């Protein structure tokens, strides 16, 4: 196929979310030429899907049709003249957001010099970091030795940002906010708060808002995974006379190096009930949308 035909058309796809419906038909380095019948330009725009004079007339009264059409035309003319509204071209994702989830939309791509047309089902984006309370994020936490671990969510990050004089504390979370979910039930587990107690003395300041990397050398997949690993360690410490230690490796917001938190397992178990009582917390854990 002649490459001149596509020289001024389409946008290159740099990546595809592995859990999305698009992953079945799109690949990195494909060129998106058209979506829902609208040609995609190099600036990632398409022509406005519907214009005022292209609205389909379905009522019976001709006078009513004419009146509505004139009103719409005058409204858009006023907006374009005085509010600098441009309705000629819009971002290409307008062809997606105008449809409800579950709708199949035809797309045309260029792959290895050949045009391919297929349908993609519209679905809600699955994000690594949940963005809205009650929709994709719910209250979750797990407490061990006074360390309160939570999954990273946008509402929580915004809350910390609004109350902190040091905004750099949450700046390192920004790179994760728009990431797609790479695998099922994956979460970024954060040390959200430290409930001060003698069992965790020395870690009361400067360790919160850090990302948990490993527990006892094991990478943590989500907060439920942390719970399983901690309970296994606590159970093993009950039957062992030697002192057991819990090791948490954290990625701190202000340092490139990892931080290390080490707690005595038996002392942490013994202090658990007292820590919860001192802070008026009913239970050490809450898992709403994981269980």
Per-chain topology:
Layout: E1 11-12, E2 31-35, E3 38-39, E4 45-47, H1 62-82, E5 89-91, H2 94-97, E6 104-111, E7 114-121, E8 141-144, E9 147-151, H3 154-163, H4 168-171, H5 174-177, E10 189-194, E11 210-215, E12 218-219, H6 223-238, E13 245-251, E14 258-264, H7 265-278, E15 285-286
Antiparallel strand pairs: 1-2, 2-3, 2-6, 4-5, 6-7, 8-9, 8-15, 9-10, 10-11, 11-12, 11-13, 13-14
Summarize the structure.
This protein is an alpha+beta fold and 291 residues long. It has helices at 62-82, 94-97, 154-163, 168-171, 174-177, 223-238, 265-278, and strands at residues 11-12, 31-35, 38-39, 45-47, 89-91, 104-111, 114-121, 141-144, 147-151, 189-194, 210-215, 218-219, 245-251, 258-264, 285-286.
Describe the structure in your own words.
By secondary structure, the protein is α+β, with helices and mostly antiparallel strands. It folds into 2 domains: 3-51 and 87-121, PDZ domain (Pdz3 Domain), CATH 2.30.42; 141-286, N-terminal domain of MutM-like DNA repair proteins (Alpha-Beta Barrel), CATH 3.20.190. Helices cover 25% and strands 24% of the residues. It contains 7 helices and 15 strands. It has helices at 62-82, 94-97, 154-163, 168-171, 174-177, 223-238, 265-278, and strands at residues 11-12, 31-35, 38-39, 45-47, 89-91, 104-111, 114-121, 141-144, 147-151, 189-194, 210-215, 218-219, 245-251, 258-264, 285-286. Strands 8, 9, 10, 11, 12, 13, 14 and 15 form an 8-stranded antiparallel sheet that branches. A hairpin with a 2-residue loop joins strand 8 and strand 9 (147-151). It is elongated, with a radius of gyration of 27 Å. Mean pLDDT is 81; it is low at 51-60.
